[in-house]
Amino acid sequence: MIAFFLVALLLSLISGVLATFIFLPSPRNDCRGLLLPLSIVRGWKYSGNDSIYIPAAFALLFTLLTLGLLLCALMFLRRRIQGYLAAMILLGTPLFIMMGASQLADVPLAFFMLATLVLLFLPARSPGNRSGALVLSGIAAGLCAWTKNEGLLFLLIVYLLLAGARIDDRDRTGLVRTAAVLLLTPAGYFFVYVLTPLDLGYHLATSLNRLFLQLWPSVIFLFFMVAGAPERAASAGERPGPGAGPGSSMPEKRRRRRVR
Length: 260
Prior knowledge:
Elements: H1 2-23, H2 35-47, H3 53-77, H4 80-91, H5 94-101, H6 106-125, H7 130-147, H8 150-162, H9 172-195, H10 200-226, H11 249-259
Helix pairs in contact: 1-7, 3-4, 3-5, 3-6, 3-10, 4-10, 6-7, 6-10, 7-8, 8-9, 9-10
């Protein structure tokens, strides 16, 4: 299991490093990931011009992918109602919609973080295809590092805590390790704030909300993986008895009319 994860992880990182040196031999700003910029440039090359619709399309794509992945993952791993609730919570987060419309790289990073955790939960539900999910999880973790610098920290923590671990919603140890990943990541951000040479007030004002957004879909996913399923409502075909409440008076009146 560790071998599959590491191979996919290394392939993603090596491809990102090679792309950096091939496409940008002397980058002006080497603190940004190149996944999105190079994808947008490729779109411009295919379209033949530097249209503003290409970056907007990528922003819309990753916004919808994050929402769809959260919905489908919980519908598959838990229940349908939990997937709907999680999707409504994410969709009702104004910051998520605003960041997606602003075309920031934090939404794609949030998608790859969520994909990494979701794919680590899949082998427990499909034992016959454990290697495939682990390879995809390693690729998603590598793409986190290629998207933004914050992804490097997330990748390191995932490797140290989750590589080789059995992640299952019925295994408390796996859930605790996954929660530790989501707690240690902002702890690493805290040390960056402490060590930054920039003005702390400016740094917090311009980045704190974006760091929160990066982890928010994964936090929602883990919450619904831990929380129990809500009770099922009574089916529409079931009717309460005569003494069950006010709703039972109508069927009783209909019976009396028929007798008369």
